[in-house]
Amino acid sequence: MSAEVTVHPQAATGPALVADLRSDTLTRPSAGMREAMVDAPVGDDVYGEDPTVALLEQRVASLLGHEAALFMPTGSMANQVALRLHAGPGQEVISDHLAHVLRAELGAAAAYSGITTRSWVAHRGLLDVDTALAVMVADGGPYQVGTACVVVENTHNFGGGTVQPLAAMRRLREQTRQVGVGVHLDGARLWNAHVATGVPLADYGACADTVSVCLSKGLGAPVGSVLVASQERVEQARVLRKRMGGGMRQVGILAAAGAWAIEHQLDRLADDHARTSTVAGILGGAYPEVVDPAAVETNILVLDTAAVGWSGPDLVAAAAGRGVLGYPTDTRHARFVWHLDADDAMTEHAVAVLLDLLGQRGTGRST
Ligand SMILES: Cc1ncc(COP(=O)(O)O)c(C=O)c1O
Fold first, then answer.
1. Within this chain, do residues 249 and 351 fall inside the same structural domain, yes or no?
2. In a domain, 363, yes or no
3. How would residue 337 be classed by pLDDT, with cut points 50, 70 and 90?
């Protein structure tokens, strides 16, 4: 073996402990959740006859302070149906440059609904109301594309689990309402914002015409999202969902998992936040240029790896070789997400590996 090659002691056998922090979608249904699924009464939901789905929809609509709700297979479909409710072909939807609807739904708004999009650069995805309003074109007349909807993501995934301030969301709602522009809240992780701040879900819900929330992320359900809106909009959404191929049959078995998760696994999101905050404090204490611990509010840690000479993909690959799995959000950032199945031992392992790797600075690895 060449003297230059360093082999990590665990490399021969593979890491003994794997901390899988790629996403909070990786969780497995807990025993209580599986029992709830087995016992759920079901019916054909395309006929509107699944009682468990109906209960879940009522529960989520009421939590978010809206008239009605619709169970969806995924967060992407919930978002895309919502965008189609707001905008038609030739109209536009705007959001920040890191927004999931613009960056990670594979151009669905254009591909399925003929909707165009524009964005503004937002540090950590934080809502900047003045910039959003400056980008928005309430009435484009015959010359400019008219903005039908502004999308706010809370918490913000690629921004690093950023919580949007309620005051900013309220101001955006007021200003857009005055000129007849809609607001969609991509609340895939709105649960995390609620637990982190104590702001009631309905207060966030009041800031948008349509809200999507995911059951399959921090809450730990195997599948499912819910779209909430007015009764009239939800009836239209039911048609759009079916048109997109999202009509589901005896799906109460899945709705039961989501309902159980809301009752039993909502408050425990605080544990994920605490672990993420601990890691951010240690890494940010050693390398303030990589992460500002004060900005880490929920369960997502985004590291500016390039600040210490690593590209995001290279750091993620190196960490994976030592049993810490993350996700490179772009060339200079790596994301690590805490969740139901990430315990203290995994957290300690992640801290040790990431501290060590970040310490190998000045390698010229960033791109
Ligand atoms: C903010 C946000 N919105 C929407 C989605 C889409 O959810 P799904 O993967 O269920 O389509 C995600 C998924 O990660 C997300 O992070």
1. no
2. no
3. very high
Q: What is the Å distance from ligand 1's center to 85 Cα?
A: 19
Which residue range is the domain that position 191 belongs to?
31-264
Residue with tokens 């109460």: 252
135 with 237, same domain?
Answer: yes
Nearest to 240 by CA among 49, 79, 1, 130: 79
Rounded distance between C-alpha atoms, residue 38 and residue 309, angstroms: 51
Give the chain's domain count: 2
- Report d(CA 296, CA 291) in Å as an integer: 8
- For residue 99, the ligand 1 atom closest to its alpha carbon is 1
Residue whose CA lies nearest to ligand 1 atom number 8: 75
Flag whether 12 is in a domain: no
Looking at residues 110-118, what average pLDDT do you find? 97
Q: Is 24 in the pocket of ligand 1 (CB under 6 A)?
A: no
What digits encode the pLDDT tens for the residues 1-17?
333 334 444 444 567 89
Give the three-state DSSP class for 219.
Answer: coil
Nearest residue (by CA) to ligand 1, atom 16, is 157
C-alpha span between 226 and 78 (Å, rounded): 7
Can you name the residues that pair with 266 across neighbouring β-strands? none
**What CA–CA distance (Å, rounded) separates 284 from 306?**
14
Q: How far is the CA of 338 from the centre of ligand 1 (A)?
A: 16
Q: What spacing in Å lies between the alpha carbon of 286 and ligand 1's midpoint?
A: 32
